[in-house]
């Protein structure tokens, strides 16, 4: 794997990107650039970050931009469980237990890809929990850990809309589609969260196949061999088996209590209305999982004699946070850049101005949908949030496409394909700093641009395969959902 020695550090990359945004905001304000919000009619002007108001805003929010960066809290919470389990030796013995029969590399890769694609059922927790696990598993089966990080990141990001069950995004995006259809007088028919379910369930198959094939045939040969930190396949002794049994017993009791508190008539972890959408269970799933792993790690550590007093647990927790120094530096500059971009309204200007131009182009329905997929994929490079982007685009395109005989549900499917396909490519992805941090643990010369050389083929081929699947589905007249 040949890399230039002068690759930008991720912190430097985000700092320079922030400088570019500041300059663009000044130029946009100088020329009075503005767009109209399609739903509210509000005039959105490019806000200058170099005028007194912009400077005052930045100085007032520089700390909260950092502390309020959502992935930062998620990473710290996840490290409570993962760090303790790793320090106590639970992760090591679990790897040896799972791989005791020398589990084939193909099984590990396919399992990680499938879990990554399906992880959107619990929101964004897949980024936080699966990426470190993938690196450890790849090392255990004699594969390059950076390949594991990249493969898992692509699985979670590019497969974000595909799932065999409802994800957290399905009800939210369907609600926006319903509102846009009613607002524009297109349809009063109920558009439910299952309106894309059949197509998205089937999509899991081609996405998984593409990611596995590219990883096996292209990424792993390109990265080369990795001969460090190999896990030894020594057998688990009696004490380790006993300790592992205790930890799984505690974990089983804990997760049974969580499930009972969620799905029983008691249901304190369900929402006020009784649903799981925006419920304490879904909103707190990362902490719930992390706490369960921590309890299992502590149980294993106590049983093995690693933890004899509470100070030993705190010591283990402290060691697990040591590698976060690099991550915190990257996140500081990344969080400022994200905040500057949002405040300036440059993302909304690019999206809405491009949408106005695109909506003036008319072709046959299928051709229009294919162009829409590509359009959304490009716009996703500037505005990552699927919900925020669809809130703007749905009120523009649903009425236009309806006049061309395209139903809101089909428009939504096309949007989700384009939106998911380029998630891993954009520098504005919130979880990219975490990916770069984990990669730097194994190779600190990989920056954003060199990482994109590995991710680019995944994103492009997934979009092509997913689009061809959409074309076949559309031409065969198969319902996209219920």
Walk me through this protein's architecture:
Helix content is 69%, strand content 1%. A hairpin with a 6-residue loop joins strand 1 (34-36) and strand 2 (43-45). Strands 1-2 form a two-stranded antiparallel ribbon. Helix 3 runs parallel beside helix 12. The radius of gyration is 24 Å and the shape is globular. The chain folds into two domains: 10-69 and 181-195 and 337-476, no CATH class; 71-164 and 205-325, no CATH class. The N and C termini lie far apart (47 Å). With 482 residues, it is mainly α. The chain has 20 helices and two strands.
Quick summary of this structure?
This protein is mainly α and 482 residues long. The protein is built from 20 helices and 2 strands.
Total strand segments? 2
Silhouette: globular
Total separate domains: 2
* SS content category: mainly alpha
Instruction: Give the CA-CA distance, first to last residue.
Output: 47 Å
Describe the strand arrangement of the main beta sheet, using strand numbers.
Answer: 1-2
Low-pLDDT runs of 5+ residues are none
Number of helices: 20
Content of β-strand: under 5%
Sheet of most strands:
2 strands, antiparallel
**What is the H/E order?**
HEEHHHHHHHHHHHHHHHHHHH
What share of the residues lie within helices?
A: 55-70%
Compute the average pLDDT. Answer: 89
Gyration radius over CA: 24 Å
